[in-house]
Amino acid sequence: MHIMDGYLPLTHAVAWTAASAPFVVTGYRALRRTVGSDGRFVLATAAAFTLLLSSLKLPSVAGSSSHPTGTALGTMLAGAPVMSVVALLVLLFQSLLLAHGGLTTLGANVFSMGVVGPWSALITYRLLMRGGLPSALTIGVAAFVGDMSTYVTTSFQLALAHPEAGASVAAAFLRFLGVFSFTQVPIAILEGVLTVLVFRALPAVSRGGLSTTGTHSAHSV
Predict the structure, then answer these.
(1) Beta strands in 7-123 (DSSP E)
(2) Which of 11, 83, 109, 120 has the greatest count of CB atoms below 10 A from its CB?
C-alpha cells in the first residue's frame, strides 16, 4: 500500500505529512519510554516484523502496491503510538534503498500504515478482548483489521488525488477499493494468521505482560 514517489500532488503530500506529524512526535516520546524501560527487544521485534512483511510487495493499483503491513504485532507489544515512528523508519528505509514508496509520499504512507493501521488494530483488540473471545482469534482479527484499514486509507488517499474524470471522489474510492481487494483481502487474512503464530513463538518476557488494553503492560496507551 505504499504510494509511489511523485504520485500525489504537492498539496496532498504536504497535507498528509502535516496530519502524520503529531502522531510521530507523540510516538517518539513513547519510543523513548519503551527503550528506557528495557523494551529494546520488544521494539526490535516490532520493527523487524514490520520491515519484513511490508517489503513483500505485489503490484496493484497504478501508483501503489499490495503487501502485508506487520504493524499489528508491534501495536500489541509496544503500543500504537510507537508504531508511527517504526513505520516512518521502515518507510524511509524502503523508499531510499528498495525503491518502495517514496519521499514525497512518505507522510501519506506513514498516516495509512503507521497511524490508521495500528490504531484500528488496537481498538479492535480491545473490543474483542472485552467480548471474551479467545486470544488467538482476537490477535488474528486485530491484525486483519489493521491491514485492511491501511488499504482503505490508501484507497481514499488515491481517490482524493486522482478522482475519475467526470466522477466523484466516492466513485474513485470504490474503484480503488475494489481493485485492491483482490490481493489485499487474502494478504490480510494471511497476516492475521502469521501474527498469531509469531506472537505465540515470542519469548514470554516479550508477551507475558500483554494486557487487556492491547499493548505490552509496560507501554500501555
Answers:
(1) 58-59, 65-66
(2) 83
Helix spans in 55-168 (H): 71-78, 80-97, 106-110, 117-130, 135-161
- Cβ atoms of residues 124 and 71 within 8 Å: no
Answer for the pair 43, 55: CB distance below 8 angstroms, yes or no.
Answer: no
10-215 placed in CATH 1.10.1760.20: yes
- Of the candidates 31, 42, 21, the one whose C-alpha atom is nearest the C-alpha of residue 110 is 21
Find the angle CA(125)-CA(94)-CA(123) to the nearest 5 degrees: 10
Q: Quick one: average pLDDT of 65-82? A: 86
- Taking the C-alpha atoms of residue 149 and residue 92, their distance in angstroms, rounded to an integer, is 21
Whole-angstrom Cα Rg for the chain: 17
Would you state the pLDDT for residue 15? Answer: 96
Distance CA 218, CA 221 (A): 10
Q: CA 17, CA 68: separation in Å to the nearest integer?
A: 22
Structural domain spans, the chain: 10-215
Asked if residue 211 has pLDDT above 50, the reply is no
Alpha carbon distance, N-terminus to C-terminus of the chain: 26
Q: Is 210 helix (H, G, I), strand (E, B) or coil?
A: strand
**Residues written for the chain:** 221
pTM of the prediction?
A: 0.84
